[in-house]
């Protein structure tokens, strides 16, 4: 039998965790990919790097907070190690979730993407995206100042 005074802290802890998780999910990149809608996008003979800039801008326009989604790009390389920037032939979409726009862009360029709490990473399909991980490091605010001075 659980004693009442021991169960109350557990319930409070559980409640505070569920509130924190709910607050974080509404600002996560994954959540925004699902909920933000692009009014219209037309790409024709556009490099992937330029398309990503357009997607970032469109996500800011669609985001009520105006922050948008941070999208990064890991370009593919050819056999000699030269960096490539794939070209998107033609895409014309209206009133579509950002997630679907991203999926189409990746499909036509031979890329894949992965979304986490903070950002979206676009990478070549032949790269092991499931082995990628995101790490967060806390630094002191004055650490940036000391780096800039050097």
Question: What can you see in these coordinates?
Answer:
Helix content is 43%, strand content 23%. With 150 residues, the chain is of the alpha+beta class. It has a single domain, classed as Phage tail protein beta-alpha-beta fold (3-Layer(bab) Sandwich). Helix 3 packs antiparallel against helix 4. The longest helix has 22 residues.
Would you identify the CATH architecture? 3-Layer(bab) Sandwich
Query: Can you list the strand order of the major beta sheet?
Result: 2-5-4
SSE string, helix = H, strand = E?
Answer: HHEHEEHEEH
Q: What is the CATH top level name?
A: Alpha Beta
Q: What's the overall average pLDDT, rounded?
A: 80
Residue ranges: pLDDT <50 for 5 or more in a row? 1-24
Overall number of structural domains = 1
Number of strands: 5
Share in helix? 40-55%
Largest sheet: 3 strands, mixed
**Percentage of residues in DSSP E strands:** 15-25%
């Amino acid at each position: 039998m659980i004693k009442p005074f021991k169960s109350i802290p557990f319930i409070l802890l559980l409640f505070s965790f569920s509130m924190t998780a709910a607050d974080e999910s509404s600002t996560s990149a994954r959540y925004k990919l699902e909920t933000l809608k692009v009014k219209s996008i037309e790409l024709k003979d556009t490099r992937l790097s330029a398309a990503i800039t357009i997607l970032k801008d469109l996500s800011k326009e669609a985001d009520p907070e105006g922050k948008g989604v941070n999208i990064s790009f890991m370009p593919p390389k050819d056999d000699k190690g030269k960096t490539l920037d794939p070209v998107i032939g033609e895409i014309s979409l209206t009133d579509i979730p950002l997630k679907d726009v991203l999926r189409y862009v990746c499909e036509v360029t031979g890329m894949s993407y992965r979304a986490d709490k903070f950002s979206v990473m676009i990478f070549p399909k032949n790269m092991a995206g499931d082995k990628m991980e995101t790490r967060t490091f806390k630094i002191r605010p004055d650490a940036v100042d000391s780096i800039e001075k050097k």
